[in-house]
Backbone:
């Protein structure tokens, strides 16, 4: 691939033979073309925007619709607004937020457990006839099938968005907490499974191979050597997904499940936009808190390893 | 409280404690929500629905189940059209998100600011504002942004694009700023040593070190944007989600599976593309 | 082709940081064209001294003169111009791995270009720039690696790219931080011979830090020995006694292994 070290190639020759990253160039070109296409002939109606009318709408929305309903016809101050906001928060916001948080927590725990069990079947180093770099045997078809099917399963689980899973499950199980939890758990199992399998594959091979040559079985190595090594990384991923789970849970509730999302959808259909904005803001605040918590845990995990 | 937590020597090690805490928390939440296995059993009509639905999983419909009105394009074309719109919204949203992400990412990273502006003056102020905007943008889910814009502007394809661009821009900005701050700084140091000014050092010495990771992450986000774009269909925008919702409510499960498999194919295609491009870019 | 070599003059220069003192009242004078080896145990202050000579840091006390000019009197802009004419080869080479050798070497002239011109010359170099870089890479022995990405090159090749980048600056001096620390003996001699020849050809002042005393005595004209931030020996290679060198590296009682 690279020219012979002792050949004195001319500059012209070198330039002609230089390595070109064709795939990257083509990718960039395709992406640029796709973007141009999307903005010009992709049915994104910018002219539909009719700026004058839309600005009017926006002004009306901000000034009238967003003003708290119960205070609309009177003179009110910021303390009144605060009191109004507090009422809504206490009656619906906090409970909804807690329900959202609880469902997201159960979902992430479930997906972590499922992913933890399955990822060993997808990692190239553990799911083979000769695990952990034993090197003596050849690849068997059976193990290959196991790996490929597990990987395919992970891909399928995460290719379908959580919202669609939830939509389907609500139709079958009714609007309870389970569809939301299962939808999140299914989707995130796929993600955590894949990330976990990659982590196992990227573990430093020598300690594990050493154990293997001493005669340890796959399960022994998995339990006692590989798990501690990859657990830090895996937990980092779990907590990173935790924040995303909470974000999604807020929205999935709009399918009729008792949570913050339910109340948002409720006031949306009633066109109480003032309350809707407040509840959305509460949702954002919830996500922010979980984000801070997740960041703290991740920092502790990094320090410990 | 925070410092107390940080100084404790956890028995079991941090990892063990974290696992335990997570499991306990999960169990606690499950108990508080009064979850019971009975909730997993489908209700009356649900069993039949589930049966009918999953029966079609491997046999998606290739043509309409009930004859459509005159002039309707064939089903496969409808699926492809839905896919096209999904990709278009995702691409437009991502391109806007990239602009937000790069601008806010640079402003919100500490490595971008020259040494003297880092601790006093305009620097920290703009940095804080940038980070606050980032957080605000990404804390609201794209569907919620869409819902807000629907209320303010009504149904319009541009609102779908902005609904994707805002949270994705915020996430990109945050991750980009972290990647820039964590990039190795040896080459930047070497450029400073040979007399380059701040901008040159950043553009040629620091940014290229972070660029492979930034590119990989942006591509991953594009794949997520396609999913989000599909889901926006449930709210009235004409992407794959809209078709799925319609067909499902009309009990035409074969059509639903056709759309689902189309979405699956789309996502897998983008993922394969991303994986190969990422490999070549890095090494 | 010969550039006027630069001279360095440190007068009672002390370099201290928040937690330690790197250099303690160091006074050395290096003339144009000299070949100096800095020797001493790890942590003695060799890198700090190189950075001081390279105008990367200002002394906490004392003065640093470059070609007779006091660095403390210069503005930031002027300091950048001075640095642009000093070639520095870092210990781990500090190249941009995902760019080609050509582009890395082209970055050598950043100190004398505007931002726009710099970006233009690194990504769209003219034919003249390309052949100049090619000639330099041929001089250091890796002419055919011109268009290879740096992360596909071996350690020795990367070092030569780093040397070429320093040469592209048409500097008056070459400052090298541990150029042969992680290199096998045969390669080490190659690199040091290259540095010595470059110094002779172009009239460059050469200052390099080394562990290996034999190599230092073989390829350099003058030795400066540092220990705990203090200069303990300084003189032409022939005049340093073996005893003085052993003392330099002697470990004191209780001194931990580095």
Residues:
């Amino acid at each position: 691939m690279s020219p012979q070290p002792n050949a004195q190639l001319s500059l012209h020759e070198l330039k002609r033979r230089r390595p070109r990253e064709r795939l990257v160039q083509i990718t960039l070109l395709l992406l640029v073309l796709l973007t141009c296409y999307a903005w010009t002939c992709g049915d994104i109606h910018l002219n539909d925007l009719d700026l004058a009318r839309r600005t009017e709408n926006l002004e009306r929305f901000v000034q009238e619709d967003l003003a708290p309903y119960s205070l609309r016809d009177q003179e009110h101050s910021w303390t009144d607004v605060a009191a109004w906001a507090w009422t809504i928060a206490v009656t619906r916001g906090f409970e909804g937020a807690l329900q959202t948080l609880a469902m997201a927590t159960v979902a992430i725990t479930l997906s972590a457990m499922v992913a933890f069990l399955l990822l060993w079947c997808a990692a190239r180093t553990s799911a083979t006839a000769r695990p952990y770099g034993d090197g003596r045997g050849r690849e068997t078809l059976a193990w290959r099938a196991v790996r490929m099917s597990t990987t395919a399963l992970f891909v399928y689980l995460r290719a379908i968005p959580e919202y669609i899973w939830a939509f389907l499950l609500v139709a079958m199980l009714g609007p309870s907490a389970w569809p939301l939890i299962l939808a999140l758990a299914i989707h995130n199992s796929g993600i955590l499974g894949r990330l976990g399998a990659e982590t196992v594959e990227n573990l430093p091979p020598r300690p594990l191979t050493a154990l293997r040559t001493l005669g340890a079985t796959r399960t022994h190595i998995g339990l006692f050597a590989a798990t501690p090594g990859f657990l830090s990384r895996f937990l980092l991923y779990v907590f990173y997904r935790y924040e995303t789970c909470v974000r999604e849970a807020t929205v999935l509730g709009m399918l009729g499940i008792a949570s913050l999302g339910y109340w948002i959808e409720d006031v949306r259909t009633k066109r109480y936009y003032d309350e809707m904005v407040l509840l959305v803001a509460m949702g954002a605040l919830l996500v922010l808190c979980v984000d801070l918590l997740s960041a703290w845990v991740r920092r502790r995990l990094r320090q410990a390893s | 409280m925070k410092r107390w937590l940080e100084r404790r020597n956890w028995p079991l090690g941090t990892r063990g404690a974290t696992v335990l805490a997570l499991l306990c928390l999960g169990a606690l939440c499950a108990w508080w929500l009064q979850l019971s296995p009975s909730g997993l059993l489908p209700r009356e009509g649900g069993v039949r629905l589930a049966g009918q639905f999953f029966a079609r999983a491997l046999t998606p419909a290739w043509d309409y189940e009930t004859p459509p009105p005159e002039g309707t394009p064939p089903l496969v074309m409808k699926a492809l059209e839905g896919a096209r719109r999904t990709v278009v919204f995702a691409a437009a949203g991502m391109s806007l998100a990239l602009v937000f992400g790069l601008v806010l990412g640079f402003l919100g990273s500490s490595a971008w600011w020259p040494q003297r502006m880092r601790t006093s003056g305009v620097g920290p102020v703009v940095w804080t504002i940038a980070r606050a905007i980032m957080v605000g943008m990404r804390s609201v889910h794209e569907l919620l942004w869409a819902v807000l814009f629907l209320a303010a502007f009504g149904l319009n394809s541009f609102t779908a694009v902005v609904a994707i661009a805002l949270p994705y821009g915020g996430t990109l900005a945050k991750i980009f700023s972290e990647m820039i701050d964590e990039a190795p700084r040896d080459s930047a140091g070497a450029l400073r040593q040979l007399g380059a000014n701040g901008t040159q050092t950043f553009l040629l010495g620091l940014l290229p070190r972070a660029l492979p990771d930034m590119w990989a992450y942006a591509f991953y986000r594009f794949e997520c944007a396609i999913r989000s774009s599909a889901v926006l269909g449930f709210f009235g925008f004409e992407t794959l989600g809209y078709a799925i919702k319609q067909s499902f409510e009309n009990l035409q499960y074969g059509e639903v599976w056709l759309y689902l498999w189309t979405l699956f194919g789309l996502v897998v295609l983008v993922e394969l593309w991303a994986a190969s491009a990422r490999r070549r870019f890095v090494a | 082709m010969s550039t006027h070599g630069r001279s360095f003059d440190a007068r009672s220069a002390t370099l201290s940081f928040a937690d330690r003192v790197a250099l303690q009242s160091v006074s050395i004078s290096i003339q144009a064209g000299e070949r100096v080896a800095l020797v001493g145990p790890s942590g003695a202050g060799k890198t700090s001294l190189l950075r001081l000579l390279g105008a990367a840091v200002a002394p906490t006390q004392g003065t640093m003169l470059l070609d007779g000019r006091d660095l403390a009197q210069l503005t930031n802009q002027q300091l950048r111009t001075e640095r642009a004419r000093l070639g520095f080869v870092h210990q781990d080479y500090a190249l941009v791995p995902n760019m080609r050798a050509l582009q890395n070497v082209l970055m050598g002239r950043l100190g004398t270009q505007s931002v726009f011109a710099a970006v233009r010359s690194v990504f769209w170099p003219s034919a003249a720039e390309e052949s100049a870089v090619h000639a330099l890479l041929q001089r250091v022995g890796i002419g055919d690696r011109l268009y290879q990405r740096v992360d596909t090159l071996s350690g020795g090749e990367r070092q030569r790219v780093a040397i070429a980048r320093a040469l592209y600056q048409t500097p008056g001096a070459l400052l090298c931080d541990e150029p042969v620390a992680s290199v096998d003996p045969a390669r080490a001699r190659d690199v040091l011979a290259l540095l010595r020849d470059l110094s002779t050809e172009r009239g460059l002042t050469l200052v390099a830090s080394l562990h290996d005393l034999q190599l230092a005595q073989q390829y350099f004209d003058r030795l400066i020995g540092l220990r705990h931030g203090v200069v303990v020996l300084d003189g032409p290679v022939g005049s340093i006694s073996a005893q003085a060198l052993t003392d330099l590296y002697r470990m004191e009682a209780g001194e931990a292994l580095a």
Observations:
- The radius of gyration of chain C is 18 Å.
- The beta strands of chain C are 8-16, 21-30, 35-39, 61-66, 69-70, 86-89, 173-176, 205-210, 222-227, 230-236.
- Chain C touches chain B at residues 54, 56, 80-88, 90, 92, 94-99, 107-108, 110-113, 115, 118-119, 122, 151, 165-166, 169 (CB under 8 Å).
- Chain C has nine helices and ten strands.
